[in-house]
Prior knowledge:
Distance between the termini: 10 Å
Shape: globular
Number of helices: 9
Helix content: 55-70%
Strand content: 5-15%
Number of strands: 5
Structural class: alpha/beta
Largest sheet: 5 strands, parallel
Radius of gyration: 17 Å
Strand order of the largest sheet: 2-3-1-4-5
Oligomer: single chain
Order of helices and strands: EHEHHHEHEHHHEH
Mean pLDDT: 90
Amino acid sequence: MRLILLGPPGAGKGTQAQRLVERHGIPQLSTGDMLRAAVKAETDVGKRAKAVMDAGELVSDDIVNAIVSERIDAPDCANGFILDGYPRTLAQADAVEAMLSAKGMGLDIAIELVVDDKALVGRIVKRADEAKAAGLPVRKDDNPAVFEERLREYYKKTAPLIGYYHAKGLLTGVDGMDEMDSVTMQIERLLDGVARKN
């Protein structure tokens, strides 16, 4: 099962991806984790990424795409994977499609966690308040102003992917404002449907 989770920051993609990892035994591919792993392993592309990061610059799409391609070839991706936080742009989505096609594979489904932005801001404030009350550190992005900036960035760069995957017949939405377990059940029903088709 090769899938991508879409939705704005705070929609619950990370939580649902973790549940899918546990239930299906397929890895969650997060670009941040993959970059760190490639740098640590000192692969060719990891060395290129390190040089760019050491210079304080943003890692280019070419490098990120190469790291993702390398990661997909790992044995634990043989039965599928979850793309999380990548692709972020239409250019990256085209690169993913070309990369998978070259490997003789494609995405099975793109799942959008459909959420209400105002409610999301409320969710972030509540999460920060709960962390403070428990004496835990508050995540730096659990700040309404920072969060709203991330939302603007999402709508500018990543939201167009919803139309992109819809046009390819891969997109399905689930109610991301529902209870966490209910969202998981909605996703599992979709995956069962895809598995029956394959």
